[in-house]
Design a protein that fits this description.
By secondary structure, this protein is α+β, with helices and mostly antiparallel strands. Helix content is 26%, strand content 30%. The protein is built from 4 helices and 10 strands; from the N terminus they run E-H-E-E-E-E-E-H-H-E-E-E-E-H. A 7-stranded mixed sheet has the order 1-2-6-10-9-8-7, with helices on both faces. A hairpin with a 2-residue loop joins strand 9 and strand 10. Helix 3 crosses helix 4.
Length: 210
Amino acid sequence: MTGPNLRDLGRVDYVPTFAAMQEFTATRGPGTPDELWLCEHPPVFTQGLSGKPEHLLRDIGIPVVQIDRGGQITYHGPGQVVVYLLLDLRRREITVRGLVNRIEQAVIDLLASYGVTAQRLAGAPGVYVGKAKIAALGLRIKHGCSYHGVSLNVDMDLAPYAAINPCGYEGMAVTQLRAYLPQWRGGDETAIVGNALAAQLARQLEEKHT
C-alpha cells in the first residue's frame, strides 16, 4: 500500500484546522487517499472528550478549545511540531492500539536519530525522555478512519504547561528536543524536525507489524 500524502500547512489556527479534519473524515470515501497534515499552531489549550475542567489550573489568556479526541488537556504553540493522521485504518488493517504503537515508535526513532533516548511509560500514552513528556498523542476514530494525531515539543516556550495538568497528570514534567541538543541552531530546524517526523510516521505506516 502506498504511503499517505503529506500536506505541510505551516502555522495555522487550531479551530479551522480541527474543522477541516472533521470535514475530511466525514466526506472521505473508500478510495480517498490517506493524508498526514504537518503544522504548528498559535498558543491554544485543547480539552479532550473526557477532559476535566480542574486540569486547567489558571487562566493565562490562552484559549481553551473543546474537541473530540480522547484524553485530557494539552498545549499547542509555536515551536511544537504537530502531525495529524487522517487514515483509513480498516484499509490499512491497523488497529487503534497498533496505530498508537506506530506513532510512539516513530517519535522514539526520530529522537534516536538526534541521539536522544526516549521511551513509553506504562499507562500514559505519549513519549518521554526520562519521566518528562516530550510528545503527546490523541486520536478520534470514526467509521474506521482516524484523525487528530501527535505533537512533539521541539523549540518552544514551555511556560504555558505550568497552567495545566498536562494530559491530566498533576505535576508532570514536560521537555523539548532543543534541551538535549547543545548545538541547536534554531531558524528552520523545527521545520526540518517536522518533516523528519512525518517521514518516520509514513515509514511506520508502510511497515508490516506483527
